[in-house]
Amino acid sequence: MSAVAQLVDTSADTEAEQTDGFHLVIDALKLNGIETIYGVPGIPITDLGRMCQAEGIRVVSFRHEQNAGNAAAIAGFLTKKPGICLTVSAPGFLNGLTALANATTNCFPMILISGSSEREIVDLQQGDYEEMDQLAIAKPLCKAAFRVLHACDIGIGVARAIRAAVSGRPGGVYLDLPAKLFSQVMDAEAGAKSLVKVIDAAPAQIPAPSAIARALEELKNAKRPLIVLGKGAAYAQADDLVRDLVEKSGIPYVPMSMAKGLLPDTHPLSAGAARSTALKDSDVVLLVGARLNWLLSHGKGKTWGEPGSKRFIQIDIEPREMDSNVEIVAPVVGDIGSCVAALLDGMNKGWKAPPADWIETLRTKREANVAKMAPKLMKNTSPMDFHSALGALRTVIKERPDAILVNEGANTLDLARGVIDMYQPRKRLDVGTWGVMGIGMGFAVAAAIETGKPVLAVEGDSAFGFSGMEVETICRYNLPVCIVIFNNNGIYRGTDTDPTGRDPGTTVFVPGSRYDKMMEAFGGVGVNVTTPDELKRAVDAAMDSGKPTLINAEIDPAAGSESGNIGSLNPQSVVKKKK
Q1: Is the domain of 413 the same as that of 547?
Q2: Are strands 18-20 and 185-187 parallel, antiparallel or unpaired?
Q3: Is 477 exposed, middle or buried (0-12, 13-18, 19+ CB in 10 A)?
Q4: What are the residue ranges in the chain where pLDDT is below 50?
Q5: Residue pLDDT, tens place only, 301-314
Q6: CB-CB contact of 468 with 518 (8 Å)
Q7: HSE value, Cβ hemisphere, 13 Å, CA-based, for 377
Q8: 369 within domain boundaries
Q9: Are residues 393 and 255 in the same domain?
Q10: What pLDDT, on a 0 to 100 scale, did the predictor assign at position 578?
Q11: Cα dihedral 141/110/445/464 (nearest 10)
Q12: Domain range spanning residue 30?
């Protein structure tokens, strides 16, 4: 054999092992503890999904990217790890972008990973397949956005996305992976060394001692103090500390909807059923993971009583949140666990419970409101109204406090917030800050997968329409999800008419629709109910069986009000058109 041949043979025997962009993305995700991906397969990420599955990452395929994105977002809220949504380019990316923007607004850690067209063609606008400058479009709508062009940078790109999603105030991150990246090849050993394991992705941020002292002084001087718990407090998973803060201080609290269950809604210090009185008559308000946005009337107006009657203390990890609507007299900047722990430590140096008359005022108002509501919840008539149907579901959650409640709609959402008591943290998932419809099925899928708990999704018939096709996804993965649709034949009410007589009213759906038949079409269980007793029995059977179930709950078409409890946000015309 010639020397040249020997040289060739030797080089062949010792050729270095190689890897590619596909494997580097998967290895980077696995290195950082990512176990589940939500998405919709297609060009150019189909093989990435297949290979993730082969490498042990669970891949949950949806029918629409927005629903997959919502699943990833709520997975982030439940786990404090960024939920991953994987989409195709252009239209798929845009579908996922709604969920990404919503995650950012709600402070849910999420990473939207999308395949994209090649830069050199996009930048010259030469008409590539699904050509779009996705990075530029994503940037204004998320917390951070990155693009990876070289395989050797995949590790650092994934690491930056993870850290950006969970550090400080959590939010959505976009990671752009052009199609050409996946097939790039590099030395496997060098590729392994290029991967980055994120260390302490969301480090504690300790509040300043002076800020704690200032907050405690305000609380000590208060005659009618109040704690408002937001979903940030639920996300923090500092449940024991939050409970200790309420019970040690003796201060009544009002939970925002996704903070319900941090302490049971039946807790003696819960003022949820006396919310209006608590907000209006309090004098010092401690905000824990809650923002003074529209959901709290921006901290002013008649909701909060006389102008200047409130002094606000706010715990938030984002300094710029302070004074966003009204003056914050005691800003406490830091992570919720550290801030609450510091307040508790300060209370050890001397603390006096709030005046007894304030506690008694709220207790009396709460009991009166509960008693007033009770007859509405106990009716067993057909057709049902919202209160009687929710009364049945209220009992379900009381008997099954470990179940996760997903809730969206107009009246279905607004009334359920007040009617259904929660007993454990992070068991109520709803539309959050933006109030968007369509989160239901994505949230339900992720809640079942991430927690393994049974899920009860209570949907308005309009809200269900945004994501209803995902019942096939629920059946395909055989998830323990029971969907209850409050079917009153329309949006708000099913009674509007077209004055011209030409079409149905703009808010009216097909009367007598049978959504339960959709579930049966995919192999799930469908049930139609007309009374609260029937509804309770059907939900119990579904939760006991763990089978995918959809219950069509017939609600009086005349029940409900315009926009639920936020009708004031819907402008009304004051001009009468001349004929």
Answers
A1: yes
A2: antiparallel
A3: middle
A4: 1-13
A5: 999 999 989 999 99
A6: yes
A7: 20
A8: no
A9: no
A10: 61
A11: -10
A12: 16-194
